[in-house]
Batch of 4 targets.
Target 1
Amino acid sequence: MTSTPHFDRLVQQGTGGRFSLIRLVEGHALSVKIEPGATEVYEVCPFPTVRPDNTVAWENEDSWEGRLTGEGTDGGPLLRSMPVQCPLYMDVPVEAVRELIIQHGGEADEQDRPVYRVTVQRTEIIQYVIEADSPEDAQARYLADGVEVGVESESIRIASVTLDEQ
């Protein structure tokens, strides 16, 4: 039996244009994006503690992609599965990714743990200063003409927790 069954399944089926997380035995992870049956993984994003060898297979690091698209840096699509910012490698041979997984002890048994989306509702008091003819006039115009002078968080609560099916 291979030590990369989850990765092998992703190579066969693809990831549907999204990143898919691969948890490693050592407690680290990497995320991949691959088309079905491809010989190269389109994008590989390893945790910072999972450093690939300095070989030709890993030479195509794209440090600008995440910065330009915002993916993976501020809660974008990549961060749904990767809680840390990571380097992004492009067009990495499947065998090189498999070797990296094996170097870190193979895949963890639990791969398909569900990912949940938590929605937090925050109530804030925002104060505006505006010149107006009456309180009603000020209330009608504050967003367009007002100058925000203060914000104070009133309360924070979890509004919902749902299974992320994206």
Target 2
Amino acid sequence: MSMHLRSAIEKLKDHYVHYLLKSGFTDASEDELKTFTITELKNLTNNYSK
């Protein structure tokens, strides 16, 4: 089960990272964004989407 959870978390992180990169909301690189937690990525996304 932990393998499925890890996979789901990585997919969610990838979604946020690619959204932020594609939208141009940040100057951070993909590698930098991947070091963020899901909560940090979600907050960045929500802040820029307003």
Target 3
Amino acid sequence: MQIFSPNVDSILLTVLLVVLPNIAPYVVHAVRQYRSQQEGDSPPRTQLQSPLLPFLGWILMLHSLHIIYQILFCYPTNLFNELNLAVVTSSSLLRQALLKGRPADSELPNSVEALLSRLQSLDARSLYVRFGHDTVEHCDYCHTFADFALFAFPSAAMTYVQTIALVGLMTVKGSGKRRWRSWGVGILVTAAVVEAWILTTVDIQFTSDNGKTVMWHDGAWLLRHSLFLLLPIGIQVLPYEYDSLVLLASLPASVQSFERTLNSLQALEHLQAASLRNEGTRPIVDRYWEEQARLARAVRGNEEVKEEATRVGIGFGEDEIGTSPVVTFARDTVQRWKALMAPLLTDEQMGKGMPSEGSN
């Protein structure tokens, strides 16, 4: 099937074969970089260092180029679409359209004549829409619906088997994609069953001479090959899995990160004292705590805040006995701790640090 002309098609195919393998690594790198930015700090992906990945990348590239070539240059032949005629067009008009532009004494190939003779039946045209041009033309021994179905389905099923094998190859151990194997195979098996069910049960509706009948075989072929193109690429883009060896290999980097964080937290403990000793930062710290004190006074003086705090049991206002709930909670806590520590404390220590009933 030619798209523009033989010369233009060959140039286009050459450009695809030369350009795509060169730009694909940059596209994959950009996708992985974007995904790593979205995930934030994560363990290093040791799977990316696997020797299988370059090999699998080339297999995926060749498969994608093969499917793109089939979609662009090997689209199923359709006599009615190419001649821009309705499916109900008579065989004589089809023959005239095929001979148009040829010498007067020229004849059609025997296979085309046999196809036109078979298409005189409306049932054969229904099978043409359902199973495609090649099935009706090349299956000489087919007479019943089951014969045509058994002739058409094995070739389509083989393409599904090939793609399932590719999915299995892309999800082998060491690829980091093993958990996606069942999903990929399940999608392909479901698509094969759905396609077979639709093509065998759909009701073919013929339109008028000027209308267009839905070519179910051609549409299913295009959807099938689009799935074959997008599914392996989708599996490649999906996140990698981490096994125990990968997590073990990531432990040193994680420990170093935790140590740096711990050192930063320990240094943060001395930040306030150090800032007060420095003449340049001391005014800044004083202004900060003055602002915090101002905000605290404003919050404590807000009646709505007081009511809400009292409602949830953490009120700081004066209650009916002259003590706030916060002070009461603190006193109860000290008493509980004293009861727990009584066996370890002397009588003199027991009398110290206990807030009085009227203290606030």
Target 4
Amino acid sequence: MKILIPGFYIICSIGMGYFCTHYQIDKDMCENISKISAILIMLILLGAFIVGYINEIISGGIEYILYCCGLPRPSRLVLNNSFKRFSLEKNRDLRHKLQQLETGFIDNIKAAKGLAQAKQTTEIDKYQEFYYQSVLARNLFFGHMFSFGLLMIIIGWSWTLFLSTLIIAVLFCWQWWKMNLVYVKKIFVEYLK
């Protein structure tokens, strides 16, 4: 689902943009589509999977580059108790168990090592659903941004398109960020048990 849903999103966005600007739907077109509908459904599924898989590869790479360029990792934000909503009551115990400084700032590198250590000693079944939700949110955000770029090529500049894309992008980015923090917090909670 983390691959198919963003793939469908991208294909549907581009398809709607293309048909709205280049084609008039007529009776002959509907008849032709109905004749090959079974094949068309299979092609759409295959296309959504391929586009979604490419989106997964690109978005995962961009996320890694962002962390290397200094964007705070969710594990860093949780370990530093940067947000009350995602803070841990037993943060000192967690830092001690991870062999990190019990007070003070933890950077991205130490946070990534601490998260990897916590993942290795916990059961993945306890937080795997949060991982899938986090990846789905990331893929939807980047799929939305890729769709916007392609729609700008197909349709051209439009303030309406830009503003609606910006609002939806902010919502997708917020969900991605929030789900990353929930996922990491869940891992650390399981690690403390």
